[in-house]
Amino acid sequence: MKHGILFSSLLLCLIVIVGGVFVLIMQRKEEQQEIAKEAFVASPAGVNNELFEAKLQTEQIDSLAAIPRPPKQVSIPKPQPTPVVLTPSQTPPPLPPSPIPVPEPSPTQVSTPLPAGRFAPIPAPQPSPQAQPEAPKIKININTAGYEELQQITGIGPIIAQRVIDYRNTNGQFQRIEDLKNVSGIGDVTFEKMRNEITVGNVAVNPPPPPTSAPPPETKTLEKININIASYEELQEITGVGEVIAQRIIDYREQNGPFQKIEDIKSVKGVGDATFEKMKDEITI
Question: What is the pLDDT of residue 76?
Fold first, then answer.
């Protein structure tokens, strides 16, 4: 315990001694700096340095004074409108009437000044121009029209135009426009399309020639075919007999001899009752 107190006392004394030495050293250093500074100021270089610093400070102050400063803006308060308080007996003044826009007159109208308080008159609607009727189309005379003119008719091309000309050359002039339907290629539908485009002109109406009595048809006597002696080609002329059945008939004759009656042909394969009814009037034995 005594040794610890002694050690602490020695340590404290050592710290005090070291602190005192450090304080003395620092004071000595400050005294030396003061002496050096006084010697420098007393020298010519020190005087010049002080003059230079004073001149530099003066130039900085002059340069700052030469810079123009913006004028200080003074905010002026705007006057506030005084609210108008109306008593029940007072009424607000009437507003002036807004002007009514007047349409500008067209170049064709005469501009005349309007009396006060009058409105501009509404222009009367101009009547629309009436469509002029089309000129009537000239009809084409199918009795005198040429090859190119006939093709101007609706539904008639180069082929039908030539047929119309051939019909006129063969049968004469058309007596009425409906006769044009006799030309091949012109039916009822095509004729209705061209009805209002064609005419026959002034044609002398000639009575049609009297119908000539057609000679009675020649009655050709049907010659029956002998199924016992008919050849391969002749048998094929019989109704219902073709190449196959004709060959069967010839084979039947060679194997069984000639037919004894026409009904025996039903014994040939392929010739039934229906086929026999069609050929019984054309065959014989």
Answer: 60
